[in-house]
Amino acid sequence: MTKRYFVIGAGSIGISTALHLQQRGLQVCLIDRDPPASATSYGNAGIVNNCSFYPVNNPSLWKKIPQLLTNRRPELRYNARYLISYSGWLAAFLRSSGSAKTRHAASALASLLSGAPDEHKALMQRVGNMHRLNESGWLRLYRQKPKQFFSDLEHDLYHTHEIAIESLNKEEIRDLEPNLNPIFESGYLLKDSMSVNNPGMLLKEYFQHFLNSGGEFSQSSVTSIARTTDGFKLKTEGTTFDANVLVVCLGVWSGQLLKTLGYRVNLGTERGYHQHFHILPDGRLTRPIYDMSAGYILAPMEQGLRLTTGVELNHWEAQPSYAQLEQVIPRAREALNLGSPTDDPIWMGCRPTFPDSVPVIDNAPNDSNLWLAFGHQHIGLMSGPVTGKLMVQKMMGEDPDIDLSPFRSDRWIKQGRG
Ligand SMILES: Cc1cc2nc3c(=O)[nH]c(=O)nc-3n(C[C@H](O)[C@H](O)[C@H](O)COP(=O)(O)OP(=O)(O)OC[C@H]3O[C@@H](n4cnc5c(N)ncnc54)[C@H](O)[C@@H]3O)c2cc1C
Known about the structure:
This protein is an alpha+beta fold. 30% of the residues lie in helices and 28% in strands. The protein is built from twelve helices and 25 strands. The protein has helices spanning 12-23, 61-69, 80-85, 87-95, 99-114, 116-127, 152-160, 170-176, 199-212, 254-258, 323-335, 384-395, and strands at 5-8, 28-32, 47-48, 76-78, 133-134, 138-142, 165-169, 186-190, 194-196, 216-219, 222-228, 231-236, 240-243, 245-248, 263-265, 268-279, 289-291, 296-301, 304-308, 311-313, 338-341, 347-353, 360-364, 367-374, 413-415. The relative contact order is 0.21. Bound molecules: flavin-adenine dinucleotide (FAD).
C-alpha cells in the first residue's frame, strides 16, 4: 500500500519540506489552518544568507542584562508574567549563552546556512520567481563608531566560515545608500547576503508550484494527533486524516499539538512586528539596512519600506504591544525620509526559539514516523528550503549533506509529564 505523507504547517519550513518530499515522487498532503505563508513566514525582513548564525544568547548577553531589565530597549522587551511561566525555557536560554555553547550553536547554524542561499535560488529557478531576489548585500550601521564590530568569538566564527565582510566609513556608507542621512559613522556590508522583495508572496509561489505538481492542501486546524497501528490520526475541527508518515512544521505552535501525543516541548516565543511605509523619491534604499544603534531593520519590499522590530518575549496569544515599533519609527525617520504608513495593517509574527537557538530537524524521540522541523527562530525564511532538503534526506535513510546531530529532538523534547 502507498504510504500517506502529511505535513502540518504551511510556513517556510512546511512548504519547503512538502516540496522536497514531492520531488521524491511522494504524494503529499499539506495542512494549515490558514492560507499558506500567512503567519511568521509572511512578514519577516526577507533576508536570506549564510551568515546569520551568531545566536542572540551569546556571551555579551550577560553584560546587557541590566539595560534589558529596564524593559525599554528596542532590541528586546519582555512580559514578566510570560517569563515567569516560561522560567525553565529562560534559564536554559541564559545557560546556553556561555562561549562554548555559543560556539557550538553558531557552528551548527553555520553548517545549516551554508546551503541556504543556493537552495532558495534553486527553488526560485524551478518556480520562476528569481525576480524577487536582490543580491546587493545587507548593511549593518552604527551611529557611533564602536571600538570593534565583533567580539573575538564572533570574529573567529566569521573568519572560520569565510564570511565576506566589507568595513565602511561614513563616506562609503553614503556611496552605497545616498538617500540615508549622514548619521551613520561606520558599518559593514555583508556582501553575500541576499534579500527578497516579498517573503509571503515568494512562499505562496513555492506553494502554488507544489499544488501545480499534484500536491494536496487542506485548510484545517488540527486539534489533536493520536497514534494508530500504522501511523497517526489527525483530528481537525471538521474531519480526520490518517497519516502513515507525519511531519510537524508548526513553528511556535508545535508544542501545543505535540502535547496531544504526550510530548513536552521546551520552546519559547520571540514576537516581532512590522509596518510598511510609502517610498518617497528621495527615500529609496537599494538593500536592507540594520540600524544597530537603534534596533530596527528597514527593508525595501513590494509593499513599500518594511520596518521590522527586535524581540518581544511574550506568549503568541497575548495582545500585541506596539511599544517597540513606536520607539523605533522616529529613529528610522532620523535615518531616512520615510513616507507615511501604507494602509497595510501593523503585523506581528512569532519566532519559535529553542533555548540553544538551534532548530530541531529529526524524528520525535519515541515515534519513528513522526518528523519534526521547527524552532528556526530568526532564520526560518532563509533556512526553509535547506531544512526541507535535509529533513527528507534523513527521512529517506540517506546520509544528510551535513551532520544533523546538533539538531536532535531529544535536546528539548521529552515524552511524559515534567
Ligand atoms: C520581525 C521578524 C523578522 C524576521 N526576519 C527574518 C529574516 O529576515 N530572514 C529569516 O530567515 N527569518 C526571519 N524571521 C524569522 C522567520 O520569519 C521564522 O523563523 C519563520 O517564518 C518560521 O517559519 P515556520 O514555517 O517554522 O513557522 P510559521 O511561518 O509560523 O508557520 C507555522 C504554520 O503553522 C500553522 N498552524 C499553527 N497551528 C496549527 C494547527 N493547529 N493546525 C494547522 N495549522 C496550524 C500556522 O497557521 C502557520 O502557517 C523573522 C521573524 C520576525 C518575527
